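Lay summary. Proteins are chains of building blocks that fold into shapes, and those shapes determine what they do. In this project we predict the shape from the chain. Here is one chain we studied, written as its sequence of building blocks.
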Amino acid sequence: MNEIELGMKTADILSEIATERARQIGGEGWIPDHDDYHIMGELAGAAACYCLTSNGVMRKEGPTSVDPKEFWPWEQSAFKPGDRRRDLIKAAALVVAEIERLDRDTLKTLNSEEV
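And here is the predicted shape, written in a compact code that computers can read:
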């Protein structure tokens, strides 16, 4: 695979992550104002749960007995693991949500210091 092909593939994956993030907002209703209430790392924790399922942990294929459901920060019905690749896309979108939340929080702090 040459650099151009690799770059196109990366761009495609990043586009999938952006599409999933948009689905979380538009389809699930997890708008930024809602995300801003999750100040204890819940979004990153949820992303970690999806990463663990993609590693085969939940499927009992991996070397560990950790069950990601035990760490899911919200109602169990909201945890919907699927195939490994899809779980990683969901995880990445949740990481993006956490980064966006952190950026908004930093901006709020900077704005309050200016007043």
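What the prediction tells us: The two ends are 53 Å apart (CA to CA).
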